[in-house]
Amino acid sequence: MNQRKHGHRYNDDFKKMLVDLYHSGSSVKDLSSEYGVSEVTIYKWIKDFTPVEGVDGKEVTPKEVDAIQKEYLRLKQELEILKKAMAIFARK
Fold this sequence. Notes:
Layout: H1 12-23, H2 28-35, H3 39-49, E1 52-53, E2 59-60, H4 62-91
Antiparallel strand pairs: 1-2
């Protein structure tokens, strides 16, 4: 029986290595059988770690874009809180 580990966490270096191997010409099927990672997981890593051209020709990954968007929303919320606090203190 071929048993697979469920819930196994892989570090980003391992994920990037598999994505690099994919971009070097290895098929997802071969990588999956060699490293014991499902094809669906590898395709997700390819999506997450394949850079796209951003502003000023800099490359960013979709994962980095998501992190930037989350940080932007957090900062926007903090700004709204500060604006409300300023309005309260201005009245006093």
